[in-house]
């Protein structure tokens, strides 16, 4: 017995370590569900971030930004709600991860850029005359470019008894909290502010009255229907892997950063579980995904992001860029929206992402003006906004695209055409798809037809009934996709909408830029349209019976062949041919 006690003592440390490891493995996973600026949003040197974290246990925890551990005192709070203090000198935007007892959280992109706006609480909104939920005391001012925006916003705030609470400095836009107690008081102040010489526009936020995602209510195709075949998805992945194989002297690829304006992604889904932690970039060739965590895999953000980044052969989604891992340059997919302050928050997040190096922005969102009608002449009742709100959004979007053209002319924005069975390009009806700029690509949706014809035949695919149409749509892509699942090897539900066609184009553009980063937006559009297959009937440039799904293919997009059979048809995405033409573009004399 005398030898038992010393032996037991020697075994205790190992037992304790094993027990701690067992406790850690049994504990809930750490998931960052929210990360956004809080406190004084006008402060840029010392920034405060509020986090909502699930799965943390009492005790020590560590936070890392860009792989570097931050001081313990910078993170405060207990339970789910934490606050992070950061002095920005010497730091740059990047992935933030929490760690405790060997468990790591999902990586979330923390932007140190300065554009942030405040969302209204439930007590700070009211129904307007159109029955839409509208912010009562929060508005944004777009200041004329000849004025110092910060000074003018502060002057106007003092004049009207308001307070500056948010800003988008690159767009000379500042958010004010008014003293208004109801919509009548707000509208009276807005009218006076709109008359100020230094004010270009007043942005009124309307959100919360309906779901934030425009739904496609049309019947989904069968689960075994290979929708992506209509865009030669697998052919494109195979071409990229084979043509760019480094071991065989393939082409050099270049890293590309993609921004996705969505709320969150479910990291507990098998499609995304291997993105946990902060060591993703240790493999320079793999895709990295940064996002807040969602509670379930069926959400809009999870599905949209999955089309770019989901793991393959897990039973759910399959990410196009993830399929390029072995030979790719190491794509970064950043899913971010910051606050839930509607369209203004979408623009603020987009500005931050561009300043953080994003080259391709995915906008799977859009809004219609109250009174917009569909192709049958019936009113649209999904994602509508009042005329006064649309006017403000239009001015804000105009400032965004002007800034993009002047400061970041190589960035492209890919926007969904919408699911209102309406017209995507009418200025008074649809935003942002009605803007005409080389840097905005508008994507419509199609689905597989029931005809047994070759993939290049125009009848291989047919317009998705709910998809918006017209000349402003650049190209159509498959609108239906399998959603991610909670368990491996399950078959996900089919989700449909132009929201899911959009990331197919965004991912393809990112892949094209990874091959030839010198391509400019107009050249990217030319390659997309030159490579496109066709859909629908030829209509000789005159729309007939709703067949004008996209801008018609022109002779100039078919080597100036007037009699080319594609001329006059709408354009359907060909991912394989677009990559092939991109490789060929490397040999062209500039």
UniProtKB/TrEMBL annotation:
UniProt cross-references to Pfam families, sorted A to Z: Peptidase_S8
Signal sequence interval, chain numbering: 1-26
Keyword Repeat recorded: no
Residue ranges annotated for the Peptidase S8/S53 domain, each copy included: 256-537
Any one GO biological process: proteolysis
Source species, domain of life: Bacteria
The keyword Hydrolase is assigned to this record: yes
GO molecular function list: serine-type endopeptidase activity
Keywords assigned by UniProt, alphabetized: Hydrolase, Protease, Serine protease, Signal
PANTHER family in alphabetical order: CELL WALL-ASSOCIATED PROTEASE, SUBTILISIN-RELATED
Sequence similarity: Belongs to the peptidase S8 family.
The protein's name in its UniProt record: Subtilase family protein
């Amino acid at each position: 017995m005398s030898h038992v006690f010393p032996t037991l003592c020697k075994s205790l440390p190992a037992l304790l370590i094993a027990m701690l490891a067992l406790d850690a493995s049994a504990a809930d996973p750490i998931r960052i569900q929210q990360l956004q600026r809080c406190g004084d949003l006008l402060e840029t040197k010392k920034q405060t971030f509020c986090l909502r974290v699930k799965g943390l246990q009492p005790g020590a925890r560590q936070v890392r930004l860009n792989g570097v551990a931050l001081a313990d005192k910078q993170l405060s709070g207990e339970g789910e709600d934490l606050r992070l203090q950061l002095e920005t000198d010497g730091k740059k935007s990047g992935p933030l991860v929490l760690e405790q007892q060997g468990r790591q959280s999902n990586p979330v992109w923390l932007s140190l850029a300065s554009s942030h706006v405040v969302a209204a609480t439930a007590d700070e909104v009211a129904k307007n005359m159109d029955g839409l939920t509208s912010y009562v005391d929060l508005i944004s001012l777009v200041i004329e470019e000849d004025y110092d925006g910060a000074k003018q916003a502060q002057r106007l705030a003092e004049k009207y008894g308001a307070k500056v609470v948010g800003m988008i400095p690159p767009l000379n836009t500042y958010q004010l909290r008014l003293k208004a107690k109801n919509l009548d008081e707000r509208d009276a102040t807005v009218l006076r502010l709109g008359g100020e010489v230094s004010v270009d526009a007043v942005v009124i936020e309307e959100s919360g009255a309906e779901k934030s995602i425009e739904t496609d209510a049309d019947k989904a195709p069968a689960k075994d229907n290979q929708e992506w075949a209509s865009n030669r998805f697998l052919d494109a992945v195979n071409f990229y892997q084979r043509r760019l194989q480094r071991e065989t002297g393939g082409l050099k690829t270049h890293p590309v950063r993609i921004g996705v304006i969505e709320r969150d992604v479910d990291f507990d889904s098998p499609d995304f579980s291997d993105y946990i932690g902060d060591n993703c970039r240790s493999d320079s060739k793999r895709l990295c995904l940064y996002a807040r965590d969602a509670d379930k895999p069926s959400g809009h953000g999870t599905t949209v992001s999955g089309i770019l980044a989901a793991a393959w052969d897990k039973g759910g989604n399959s990410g196009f860029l993830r399929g390029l891992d072995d030979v790719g340059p190491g794509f970064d997919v950043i899913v971010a929206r910051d606050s839930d302050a509607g369209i203004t928050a979408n623009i603020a997040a987009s500005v931050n992402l561009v300043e953080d190096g994003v080259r391709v922005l995915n906008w799977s969102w859009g809004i219609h003006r109250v009174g917009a009608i569909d192709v049958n002449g019936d009113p649209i009742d999904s994602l509508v906004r009042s005329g006064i709100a649309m006017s403000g959004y239009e001015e804000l979007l105009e400032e965004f695209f002007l800034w993009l053209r002047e400061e970041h002319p190589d960035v492209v924005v890919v926007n969904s055409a919408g699911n209102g069975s309406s017209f995507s390009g009418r200025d008074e009806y649809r935003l942002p798809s009605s803007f005409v700029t080389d840097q905005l690509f508008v994507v419509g949706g199609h689905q597989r037809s029931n005809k047994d014809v070759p993939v290049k035949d125009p009848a291989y695919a047919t317009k998705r009934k709910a998809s918006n149409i017209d000349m402003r749509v650049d190209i159509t892509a498959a609108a239906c996709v399998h959603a991610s699942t909670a368990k491996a090897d399950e078959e996900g539900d089919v989700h449909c909408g132009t929201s899911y066609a959009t990331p197919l184009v965004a991912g393809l553009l990112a892949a094209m830029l990874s091959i030839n980063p010198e391509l400019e937006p107009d050249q990217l559009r030319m390659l997309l349209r030159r490579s496109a297959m066709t859909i629908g009937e030829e209509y000789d440039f005159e729309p007939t019976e709703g067949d004008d799904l996209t801008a018609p293919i022109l002779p100039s997009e078919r080597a100036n062949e007037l009699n080319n059979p594609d001329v006059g048809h709408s354009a359907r995405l060909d991912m394989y041919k677009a990559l092939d033409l991109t490789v060929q573009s490397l040999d062209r004399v500039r």
